Amino acid sequence: MNSNHGFFDRFGGKYVAEVLKRPLDELEEAFRHFSRDPKFSAELQEIRRDYIGRETPLLFAPRATEHLGGAQIYIKLEGLANTGAHKINNAIGQVLLAKYMGKKRIIAETGAGQHGVATAAACAKLGLDCTVYMGEVDVRRQQPNVAAMELYGAKVRSVTSGSRTLKDAVNEAMRDWASNPDSTHYVLGSALGPAPFPDIVRSFQSIIGEEVKAQCEERNIDVAAMIACVGGGSNSIGFFSPFLQQKSPRLIGVEAGGIGPKIGENACRMLGNASRESIIQGYKSRFLVDEDGNSLPTRSISAGLDYIGIGPQLAALGESGRIEFVSATDKEALEAVLFFAQKEGVLFALESAHAGAAAMKIAKEIPQDKAIVINMSGRGDKDVFITSPEFRPEEWKRFLQSELQRLNEQKDIHNAKLLGETANA
Ligand SMILES: *Cc1c(COP(=O)(O)O)cnc(C)c1O
C-alpha cells in the first residue's frame, strides 16, 4: 500500500530544506526504476537467499501454545537473519539501490547501533564506503555495536551536538547528505523520515510478511492475529504489509510501556495522551514532544523501541483502526524473554519480546483452532549486557570486574615487555 504522493492520510510528507529535495526526488525516481529492473531484482533475491539467509523459518511453538491454553502460537524467526535482526533487509536493499545509482559512499544514523551494524555489514558485502553517525552518549553506551561496525570496516562518527543521541545523529547525517548528494546515499533505518523513505523501507521489509503469508497458506494455518513490536515501525509495517488491504487477520502493534504510564516512563506514541501531531525531521506524524516541539523524555528497556516518533503509515493505520496498538512493560518483556527461551529454546531480542508479551496476554481470547503469528524481529544475543544485570546482577558485576582486572594485567604485561625491550636495546 503505497503512499499518496508521500502522504498516508494526513501523515508523512517531505518537509525538508530545499537542498534535500533534489536527492530525495532522485532517490524516488531511482527506486521506481530499479524496483522494476529484472537484474536488480535477481541480484537482491540472490543476496537475500545466500547472505541474509532467507526465507527465515515460521516456527510452531507447541509448548508455549499448550501453556497459554488458547490460539496456536507461531513465531517468525526473523532474528535468524544474518546480523541477528530484520534491519539487514532494509540495509541490503538500500545499499544495493545506491550501488545501482552509481553512489560510492553510504552514510547512516544509528541510535542503539543495530541499524549501524546492519548498514556496515551491507556496505562490506557490496563494497561501498560506510560512515555511521552516532550520538556521543550512544557511542559510550553501545560499545559492542560500535566495535562490530568497525570490524565491518565502517567509520563511526561521534556526534557531540544537542543531546548527543539519535536525534542529533539524524541531523548530522542529513547535513552530510545535503553537502554530498552526488556521491552519497543516506540509508535511513526505519519506515519514517521524509518521503520516499517510508515507502522504500516498507517495501524492502515486506519480504517478512510475504513469506509469512506463503508459509501460512502452504501449511493451512488459519491466522487470527499478527503481532509485532513498534519502534520507528519497520519490522511491523513489513510484517503487516501484505495484509493491510484485508479485514483480517487482526494486526497488533506493541509499543514500549517502559516502567509506567506517566510521561517519561515509556515510549508510547499511539497509546496514552502524551504524544502530539507534529512535523519533525522531515515528516508529519505523532511524536512525544512538548508544545514547543522539544523531545519529551522516553524510557524503555529495549533501545530499539525507545524513540519519540513513529512511521507515518502506522500513525495513519492506527487512526483508521486497521492496526490496533497495545503496550508491554519492561517487566513483561523480560518475562517473555524467559518464557520463550525456556518453553521453545528461542531467545527473543528485548524489542521483539514486547510482541511476545502481548501474545501471551491475548492467546487465551483466541480459539484453539486459530493461530497467532509473532514477529521475532531480532534474537537476544545482543542483549546480554542488559538481561544479565537484570537476571543475575551479582555474577555479572563480578564478571565485569574480573574482565577489567584481566585487561589491566594485560596492559601491565605489555608495558613490562616494552620496558624490557627498551632495556635490552
Ligand atoms: C531496531 C529494532 C526494532 C525497532 O525498529 P522498527 O523500525 O520499529 O522495527 C525492533 N526489533 C529489533 C530487533 C530491532 O533491532
Automatic annotation (TrEMBL):
Gene field: trpB
Q: Which PANTHER family match?
A: TRYPTOPHAN SYNTHASE, TRYPTOPHAN SYNTHASE-RELATED
List, alphabetically, the GO terms of the cellular component aspect: cytoplasm
Entry-linked Pfam families: PALP
| Top-level taxon of the source organism | Bacteria
Q: Which family does it belong to?
A: Belongs to the TrpB family.
Which HAMAP family does this UniProt record tie to the protein?
Trp_synth_beta (MF_00133)
Q: What's the name of the protein?
A: Tryptophan synthase beta chain
Lineage from the top down?
Answer: Bacteria, Pseudomonadati, Fibrobacterota, Fibrobacteria, Fibrobacterales
Alphabetic keyword roster: Amino-acid biosynthesis, Aromatic amino acid biosynthesis, Lyase, Pyridoxal phosphate, Tryptophan biosynthesis
Q: Which cofactor does it need?
A: pyridoxal 5'-phosphate
Q: Does the keyword Amino-acid biosynthesis apply?
A: yes
Oligomer and partners: Tetramer of two alpha and two beta chains.
Residues with N6-(pyridoxal phosphate)lysine modification: 87
SUPFAM superfamilies membership: Tryptophan synthase beta subunit-like PLP-dependent enzymes
Enzyme Commission number(s) of this protein: 4.2.1.20
Query: Which pathway does the database say it acts in?
Result: Amino-acid biosynthesis; L-tryptophan biosynthesis; L-tryptophan from chorismate: step 5/5
* Keyword Amino-acid biosynthesis recorded: yes
The GO terms describing molecular function are: tryptophan synthase activity
Could you tell me what this protein does?
A: The beta subunit is responsible for the synthesis of L-tryptophan from indole and L-serine.
- Catalyzed reactions per annotation: (1S,2R)-1-C-(indol-3-yl)glycerol 3-phosphate + L-serine = D-glyceraldehyde 3-phosphate + L-tryptophan + H2O
Residue span(s) of domain Tryptophan synthase beta chain-like PALP: 53-378
The record's annotation in InterPro entries points to: Trp_synth_b_CS, Trp_synth_beta, Trp_synth_beta/beta-like, TrpB-like_PALP, TrpB-like_PALP_sf
